[in-house]
Design a protein that fits this description.
Number of helices: 6
Largest sheet: 4 strands, antiparallel
Structural class: alpha+beta
Helix content: 25-40%
Radius of gyration: 16 Å
Distance between the termini: 33 Å
Shape: globular
CATH architecture of one domain: 2-Layer Sandwich
Bound molecules: zinc ion
CATH class of one domain: Alpha Beta
Length: about 180
C-alpha cells in the first residue's frame, strides 16, 4: 500500500528529545536515525489478530522464511513488525505517564526515530507455547531454527546478549538486511 504522508506539525524525534531522550542518544548507543519506508506490504496478522506490515522486500523474505520454517514443522508467529515513529513516541509517553524514568524506558524501548521497527525491516517473532517478548523464546525450537536458517533469508538477530547498543537481549527481534549485517 502507498502510505499517506501528512506533514507532522512537530518532528516526533525532536519532541522525544524534549521529553528527555539525551541529545547524544544515537551516538552513545551506536544507533542511527532511521527513516520510515515509502511503501509497506501486508504480512498477515499477528498473534492478536492485527494486520502487520513490512517494507515490500523484507515482507517477501519473511514470507519465504516463514514458509521454509513451516516446512520444517516450525511455526513462526508475528508479534509486531512495522511501527511508525509517532507510534513509538506514544509508547514512550505512556511509560512516562506511568511513572517510569526515561533512563528505564530506554533500556527496553528504542527512542522514537531510532527503532529498527520504523524501517519496516524488523519484526518480533514468537511461536506457540512461548510467551511473546520474553527471553524464554530462546529455548524454543523456533529460535533454534532461526539461529540456523534466518541468515539464508537475510534476517539476523539485532540485539544479542551484551550487544554494543546497551539494549536488553531480544531473542525475538530479527531484522532483514539487504547485505550481510555488520558483526555486532
Ligand atoms: Zn523488536
Amino acid at each position: 500500500m502507498n502510505r499517506p504522508r501528512p506533514t507532522p506539525q512537530i518532528d516526533p524525534v525532536a519532541l522525544a528529545h524534549s521529553l528527555g531522550v539525551p541529545r547524544d542518544y544515537g551516538r552513545v548507543r551506536g544507533l542511527r536515525r532511521v527513516r520510515e519506508p515509502a511503501q509497506l506490504a501486508t504480512i498477515g496478522r499477528d498473534t492478536q489478530g492485527r494486520e502487520q506490515y513490512l517494507a515490500p522486500r523484507a515482507a517477501r523474505a519473511w514470507a519465504r522464511m516463514r514458509e521454509a520454517a513451516m516446512h520444517d514443522s516450525v511455526e513462526l508467529e508475528i508479534v509486531s513488525a512495522f511501527r511508525g515513529i509517532e507510534y513509538q513516541l506514544g509508547i514512550v509517553r505512556r511509560k512516562l505517564e506511568r511513572g517510569q524514568s526515561m533512563d528505564e524506558i530506554l533500556r527496553v524501548s528504542a527512542a522514537p526515530g531510532y527503532s529498527e521497527h520504523h524501517t519496516g525491516r524488523a519484526l518480533d517473532i514468537t511461536t506457540p507455547g512461548y510467551t511473546a517478548l520474553e527471553e524464554e523464546f530462546e529455548r524454543s525450537p523456533a529460535f533454534a531454527w532461526l539461529r540456523k536458517n534466518a541468515k539464508l533469508y537475510k534476517f539476523s538477530l539485532s540485539y544479542p546478549r551484551g550487544n554494543r547498543h546497551g539494549i536488553a537481549y531480544e531473542p525475538w527481534h530479527w531484522c532483514w538486511h539487504e547485505k550481510s549485517p555488520r558483526p555486532r
